[in-house]
Amino acid sequence: MRQRRVKKRSLFLQLCSNYIFIGAPDQRNPYEQDVKPAGDLPKQPYIKETFKESNGIPVDKPLYLEIGSGKGRFITELAAKNPGSFYLACEGGLNINVRILQKAQELGLDNLKVITEYITIPTEWFPENSLDGIYLNFSDPWPKDRHAHRRLTYHKMLEGYKAVAKPGAVLQFKTDNDDLFEWSLTEFETAGLKTLEISRDLWNSQYAASNIMTEYEEKFGSNGKTINYIKLQLK
Ligand SMILES: C[S@@+](CC[C@H](N)C(=O)[O-])C[C@H]1O[C@@H](n2cnc3c(N)ncnc32)[C@H](O)[C@@H]1O
Questions:
Q1: Closest-CA residue to 85 (of 184, 16, 166, 12)
Q2: Which of 7, 53, 121, 194 is the most exposed place for a label (fewest CB within 10 A)?
Q3: Which residues are catalytic?
Q4: 70 lines ligand 1 (CB under 6 A)
Q5: Per-residue pLDDT, 68
Q6: Whose CA is nearest to atom 18 of ligand 1?
Q7: CA angle at residue 160 from 73 to 67, to 5 degrees?
Q8: pLDDT tens digits for 163-174?
Q9: What residue ranges of the chain have pLDDT lower than 50?
Q10: In the CATH scheme, what is the code of domain 9-26+35-233?
Q11: Ligand 1 site, residue 122, Cβ cutoff 6 A
Q12: pLDDT of residue 32
C-alpha cells in the first residue's frame, strides 16, 4: 500500500501520542532487511511482561490484535462497538499508520493503541497467554514461492500466534486472494488449528451480518470479487 507522506507527521504524532503503543522492541527482522526505522516515533526499552502496565492497558479486559491494519477502518470500528475490550492495531507502514491514529482520535476511542512497527516475531512482542484473538485482514499475499515465509499465515507465524494466545483465543482471516486462502488452509492444518467458521463468499454468507468491512475489502468486494473468510481456534 503506497501512501504519500503525511505533512507535519511529527507534530501529529506528538498530538496523538496517547494512542501509540510505547516500547517497541529492537526487533531483529530476519525477513525484511530493508525495514525502515521508526524514526520520529517514541522508543523505550520494552519489557513484554509489563506491556499492559506501560501502555495503560487494563489487565482485566480482553485484548485483541490486528496485524496489518492499513488505514484502520476495521479495528477502529470494532473498538468503537466493543468498549469492554481493548484493541491493538499493528501497521508498519509509516504514512499509513497515521490514518489509524487520526481515526482513533476522531472517534475518541479509549480502548485502542497503535503499534507503529512490523510484527514478524509475535513472541518478541507479547508474553505467552496474553491475547484473546488475532485478526489478519487482506494480508500482503507475497505471491512468489520463495517469499512464502513472509506471509502472515505462514505456519511458523501461526506457531507464534499460538504461543501468545490465551486458551480459547481465535484467529480470524479474510482475503480476496483465492490462492493465498487455499495455501493458508494447509498452513492452518499444519499448525493444528481448528476451523470454527468458513466461507468463500463472506458477503453472501450467514456471517455477513456481523462482518466489519476493511478498506481493501470494500474496494475488491464492490468490484465483484468474492471475499474468503475463516475463523479458527488458536488454542
Ligand atoms: C494489503 S494491506 C491491507 C490493509 C487492511 N487490513 C485492509 O484490509 O484494508 C496490508 C497491510 O499490512 C501491513 N503489514 C504487512 N505485514 C505487516 C506486519 N508484519 N506487521 C504490521 N503490518 C504489516 C502493510 O504495511 C499493509 O498496510
A1: 166
A2: 7
A3: 140
A4: yes
A5: 98
A6: 118
A7: 10
A8: 999 999 999 999
A9: 27-38, 41-42
A10: 3.40.50.150
A11: no
A12: 36
